[in-house]
Design goal:
Elements (H helix, E strand, L loop, with lengths): L30 H25 L3 E8 L5 H8 L8 E5 L5 H4 L5 H4 L8 E5 L8 H4 L5 H4 L2 H14 L2 E9 L2 H13 L10 H6 L2 H15 L6 E5 L3 H17 L12 H9 L4 H17 L5 H19 L1
Parallel strand pairs: 1-3, 1-4, 2-3, 4-5
Helix pairs in contact: 1-11, 2-11
Bound molecules: adenosine monophosphate and magnesium ion.
């Protein structure tokens, strides 16, 4: 999937209007096929996250920003489905509390950044301090205008210290937002999500787009790039983000930590403790796990594992 066209090149100036929120050009198949692809990606992300956790070396930060109804919650749910909650954390940033307000705006952010072996997802982020804060003039321009550089410096610090950063702007348009608000008031299970105040924010759409555009142009860097994700179609948004995340995790070239010395001795010892049926069950479970997580290519690898197990059985006999 050639998703580089969604990446904001740090050396170029972009305009949001040049990114079509409606397109789904990198996926030719049907919607149901996209769902299958997402399942596959979920499995791969699950396996990669487990390696990240096992290795305890890398830190990964995923930042998600969008207008109201843009799909932040839905993206997190869909992309991280099946991932072990141990080792993945979501940090949501709301209107700052009095204690947060008493500090600089990055204070609450830095506390939530990922530790080693951890993936943290920011649902809103430090970028609110150049978005809602700018649009509503919550601090003077002289203050918010310095923040782009400050955020870049902050993210450089994180990256220099070994954090991999991905930033996604979920790009929807005004019509899609109206439809999504409508869905919230029509669906009794979603009304709780409807906040009448959001309709006031909607009136400031143009100002928000200006703020988003500045943010994308000023804070997309080599070490922490922005992606503008077409997000009117939820299924497309999900597979694009899941693919970028999968590829990024793969790029970390992780491995499982080395097993203890004398593993073979322990293997023989433990095999001696169980019946042949239990041994078969254990092997079946391993095979199922690997298949689910896409660690083994279904056909060839299946045969490979069979051969390996047969060899082990012969070895034992
Ligand atoms: P929600 O994500 O719908 O729960 O809403 C959270 C609200 O908190 C949004 O309206 C954000 O704009 C607002 N918010 C988040 N960070 C800040 C901030 N630093 N200053 C002011 N408002 C913020
Ligand atoms: Mg809201």
């Amino acid at each position: 999937m050639k998703y580089d066209k969604y990446r904001v090149d740090p050396k170029k100036k972009i305009e949001i209007k040049d990114f079509d929120p409606n397109e789904s050009s990198l996926f030719e198949g049907k919607k149901s096929e996209a769902r299958d692809l997402l399942r596959e990606l979920n499995g791969e992300i699950e396996a990669l996250q487990e390696q990240l956790y096992a290795e305890g070396k890398h830190r990964v930060l995923v930042i998600i920003q969008a207008m109201d109804t843009g799909g932040k919650d839905g993206t997190i749910r869909a992309v991280f489905e099946g991932v072990n909650p141990q080792g993945v954390r979501v940090a949501s940033f709301k209107v700052p509390t009095p204690i947060e307000m008493a500090h600089d705006y990055l204070w609450r952010i830095h506390q939530q950044t990922p530790g080693k072996g951890e993936i943290v997802i920011f649902n809103r982020s430090q970028y609110e301090d150049v978005l809602v804060v700018r649009v509503h003039g919550l601090v003077p321009k002289a203050v918010w205008s310095k923040r782009y550089e400050q955020i870049n410096a902050f993210e450089k610090l994180l990256a220099d210290e070994g954090t991999t950063i991905l930033k996604f702007y979920l790009n929807i348009d005004l019509d899609e937002q109206a439809a999504r608000f409508l869905a919230r008031v029509e669906d009794p299970t979603k009304t709780w999500k409807f906040n009448p105040g959001d309709l006031e924010e909607r009136k400031l759409w143009a100002q928000y787009m200006e703020a988003y555009e500045d943010m994308l142009n000023k804070t997309s860097t080599e070490q922490a790039p922005w992606y503008v994700i077409p997000a009117n179609k939820k299924w497309y948004r999900n597979i694009v983000i899941a693919t970028i995340l999968r590829d990024t995790l793969k790029g970390l070239k992780m491995g499982y930590p080395a097993p203890p010395a004398d593993l073979e001795t322990y293997r023989r010892l433990l095999r001696g403790m169980v019946s042949p049926e239990v041994l078969d069950e254990v092997h079946d479970d391993i095979r199922d796990d690997h298949k689910k997580e896409g660690l083994l290519k279904p056909k060839g690898a299946e045969a490979e594992l069979e051969a390996y197990l047969a060899m082990r059985r012969a070895d034992e006999a």
